[in-house]
Amino acid sequence: MPTYDDITLEPIYPILEAAQHLHIAIYHDELSMDHGHKQTTPSLVACSGTTTPGKKGNRWSIHVSYFILEMDGQLVLTTGQLEAQAQLQPDQWLGITNARKIIFPGKNGDAWWDMQQLLAQIKLTIPIFEYIQPGAIGV
């Protein structure tokens, strides 16, 4: 794995033998946001001056799952890499160019995030990593 210069923060790549491969750390992160009930009618004001909360069942969420490379940030093709993809034959294009997955779980929404969805996301992420970092091994 690359290390970094203490002053300039430039990456320092290890010297590898012919049969060795650069190892690059891949981090996974998730973000969930819960959005409250959006009332269309005015709230009732209790004697204490507080408003009544909306129904619990009318809430919705956004769940974002993505992968991060230490040097590049989110695992996604850059504009230049997308342009290079466009020059390839259609059968050589990557099916997905961004490793991020967004779902909207909740009542009448997508299923809640689980291991099966994460594994499907990883399978789609591997070709993106291999395109961005050819010959490297993701850890």
Helix segment count?
2
Radius of gyration computed on alpha carbons: 22 Å
For the terminal residues, how far apart are their CA atoms? Answer: 10 Å
Strand content: 15-25%
Number of strands: 8
Along the chain, the helix and strand elements come as: EEEEEEHEHE
- The domain count comes to 1
Helix-strand category: alpha+beta
Label the overall shape: globular
Average pLDDT across residues?
80
Helix fraction by DSSP (H/I, runs of at least 4): 10-25%
Q: Report the uncertain regions.
A: 39-48
The largest sheet is: 4 strands, antiparallel
SSE blueprint and pairings:
Blueprint: E1 3-4, E2 11-12, E3 23-24, E4 26-35, E5 60-69, E6 73-74, H1 79-86, E7 101-103, H2 115-132, E8 137-138
Parallel strand pairs: 3-8
Antiparallel strand pairs: 1-2, 4-5, 5-6, 5-7
Task: Name its key features.
globular, two-stranded antiparallel ribbon, 2 helices, about 20% helix, single chain, about 140 residues, alpha+beta
Concise synopsis of the structure shown:
The longest helix is centred in the last third of the chain and has 18 residues, at 115-132. This protein has two helices and eight strands, in the order ββββββαβαβ. The protein has helices at residues 79-86, 115-132, and strands at 3-4, 11-12, 23-24, 26-35, 60-69, 73-74, 101-103, 137-138.
Describe the protein in words.
The strands form 3 sheets. Strands 4, 5, 6 and 7 form a 4-stranded antiparallel β-sheet that branches. A two-stranded antiparallel sheet has the order 1-2. A two-stranded parallel sheet has the order 3-8. It has 2 helices and 8 strands. The radius of gyration is 22 Å and the shape is globular. The protein has 139 residues and is an alpha+beta fold. The protein has one domain (3-33, 60-138). Helix content is 19%, strand content 24%.
